[in-house]
Every structure is written in structure tokens, then in C-alpha cells.
Write a structure and sequence with these properties.
Length: about 100
């Protein structure tokens, strides 16, 4: 049952993301992560939403949070896709 919630909430967050509704995307992703702090799709969507808001510090904080939670709870690194998204959105704000 929990997995269905996470999948449905992720789908809804993706829809908000596609419609450039960053605040709604962020809210849903935070709700997802409150249930499962290792749900990587939520971190991926969060980083994109923060990029839409030009919030570089939150992009970095979100990725760091993902890395910490995955290491602490699963003893693993983020998926390559998560790191690719992080690098791509961070690069948009390179100084």
C-alpha cells in the first residue's frame, strides 16, 4: 500500500513539474520523502523544481540530503540518473 501511495504521489508531482508548477511539485515531493526518505524520484523532481525557481542552494542541499539518506539507510550511493540530474541542473547556475 505504501508503494502505491509513493508511485501515485510521484506521478502527480511529475504532472505538476511538467506544468511548471514548482511549488506544488516541491510540496508533493516533501510529502513523499516524509514517508520514504530514500525515494530517489522525489529528489530528482525536487532538484528540477528548485532549478525552475533558480534556487541553486536548494538544488545542492537536496542532492546532499539524498546522498546522506541513501548512505545512512541503505548504505548505497545515488543512482547515476540522480547524479546526472544534479550535475545538469547545477550547471545551469555555474558561476
Amino acid at each position: 500500500m505504501a508503494t502505491r501511495y509513493l508511485e501515485a504521489a510521484t506521478t502527480l508531482a511529475e504532472l505538476h513539474s511538467r506544468q511548471n508548477q514548482a511549488a506544488e511539485t516541491i510540496w508533493l515531493c516533501e510529502m513523499i520523502l516524509a514517508r520514504d526518505s530514500c525515494w530517489e524520484e522525489a529528489y530528482q523532481l525536487l532538484m528540477r523544481a528548485y532549478a525552475d525557481q533558480s534556487n541553486r542552494s536548494q538544488i545542492v542541499a537536496t542532492y546532499d540530503r539524498c546522498v546522506r539518506n541513501l548512505r545512512a539507510n541503505l548504505d548505497m550511493a545515488p543512482l547515476p540518473r540522480t547524479t546526472e540530474i544534479f550535475e545538469a541542473v547545477k550547471a545551469r547556475f555555474a558561476r
